[in-house]
Specification:
single chain; 78 residues; alpha/beta; Rossmann fold; four-stranded parallel sheet; ATPase_V1-cplx_f_g_su; ion transport; ATPase_V1_fsu_sf; DUF5615 domain-containing protein; transport
C-alpha cells in the first residue's frame, strides 16, 4: 500500500517526494484528472490533500468521501 499527496505547493511536492511519497502538483485545470487517477489506484491507501486544494474542490472531495472509504483521504495544512 502507498500514499500520495495532491498539492499546489512546489515545496511540499519536493518534500514529500524526498520522503518517497508519490506527489502531484494540481491546479484548477488538472485536479479532476489527478483526483480520479488517485482514487482508482487500488494500491493507494492514503490520499493526502492540502487545505488549499481542498478548499477549491471541497464539494467533489466530500462527495467522494461520503460514498467511498478507500483510499483514506486526509486534509493537511500546507
Amino acid at each position: 500500500m502507498k500514499a500520495k499527496i495532491l498539492t499546489d505547493s512546489n515545496s511540499l511536492l519536493t518534500m514529500f517526494r524526498l520522503g518517497a511519497i508519490e506527489a502531484s502538483l494540481v491546479g484548477d485545470q488538472n485536479f479532476e484528472v489527478e483526483f480520479k487517477n488517485s482514487y482508482k489506484d487500488e494500491n493507494l491507501a492514503i490520499l493526502i490533500i492540502t487545505r488549499s486544494v481542498y478548499n477549491k474542490n471541497m464539494n467533489r472531495i466530500d462527495n467522494y468521501r461520503r460514498d467511498y472509504s478507500m483510499p483514506l483521504i486526509v486534509i493537511i495544512d500546507g
